[in-house]
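Lab notes, practical 5.
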Amino acid sequence: MNLKLRFPSLLIKDFKTYYLLNQGQTGIGMGTIHVPLKVMIENYELENMKMIMSELISNRKLAYYGILTNCLDS
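Output from the prediction step:
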């Protein structure tokens, strides 16, 4: 499940940015993570995840960042 990777690494492991906004200056980021959201929250803590995602959004000039997963929580 790649839990040994830190959360920032999971966010960008399979990451794509689509520059569609503001004439190509602002992007929409999507990451594919093969870890259930419930497991990520239990291991990395929700507030910590929010902070790391906010930093990614700011550093990469994203308007939005989304997580795609093909895992079921239960």
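Observations recorded by the TA: Helices lie at 7-13, 37-44, 46-59. The first helix runs from residue 7 to 13.
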